[in-house]
Amino acid sequence: MTEHRILGTNFKGPFPEGTDSCVVATGCFWGSEKAMWRMPGMYTTAVVYAGGPTKDPTYQKVCSGNTGHTEAVLCVWETDKLSFTDVVRMYLQCHDPTQVNGQGNDRGTQYRTALYYNSDDQKRITEAAIASYEKSLGGRTIATELRALKPKGDVEYYYAEDYHQQYLASPGARQYCSAQPQGVQLENAERWLPEDLKGKYTPKLPEAFWEKHAPTPHCVLREPHEQFKWPPA
């Protein structure tokens, strides 16, 4: 299986020019992937295992908590339609990033919060966004594991089994999501984005998008599978 159930794109690459990517972990990857694929400008997504040393992990092994991997989502977006700044905002707002080794009722290191980046720019933007969001959350500490993907760093990801891909949109899927969005908006990037990155990484999605579509508890279970249209027709 290589074709995205909803977007119709190849989620195993190679990906076209004009795209960028990262890997995010926000707990159970079923709901996380849907939150990401619904973003306007997201080219493709896939659920993966990432962050641990175990080669070629399986779902059963990852669930044991002994592989070191997270349940994660590969995100690939079109840079003329979506900015990494938008992606990191969805990452922070679609779960409770202050929880350690768990999300909701799901407990274990495989459910830890993480962002695995592909460039120094992504690292700097994520660090700045986290610092801002901690203030918005009243000073609570965000537990994000922030590490570089290969070849820049040591993080390698492995595609999860076919039956997990776009799981919530598959026939007969168990409608489950443990994510705990806090209902708190990240400040406008103008207030926290590093000055030298503001031109290249200005958000593509306006505040009006977040006012209408910011994540809420179990939103991925209530809403359609199709990608958001923005601006709305």
Q: How big is the Rg?
A: 16 Å
In sequence order, what are the helices and strands, one letter per element?
EHEHEHEEEHEEHH
How would you sum up the global shape?
globular
Poorly predicted runs:
none
Instruction: Please indicate the percent range of residues in DSSP E strands (runs of 2 or more).
Output: 15-25%
Average pLDDT metric: 96
Backbone structural class: alpha+beta
Bin the helical content.
10-25%
The span between the termini is 33 Å
- Characterize the main sheet: 6 strands, mixed
Number of strands: 8
Task: Tell me what you see in this structure.
With 233 residues, the chain is an alpha+beta fold. It contains six helices and eight strands; from the N terminus they run E-H-E-H-E-H-E-E-E-H-E-E-H-H. It has helices spanning 29-37, 59-63, 84-93, 120-136, 207-213, 219-222; strands spanning 19-26, 42-50, 70-78, 102-103, 106-107, 113-117, 145-148, 157-159. The chain has a six-stranded mixed sheet with strand order 7-6-1-3-2-8, with helices on one face. Helix 3 (84-93) packs across helix 4 (120-136).
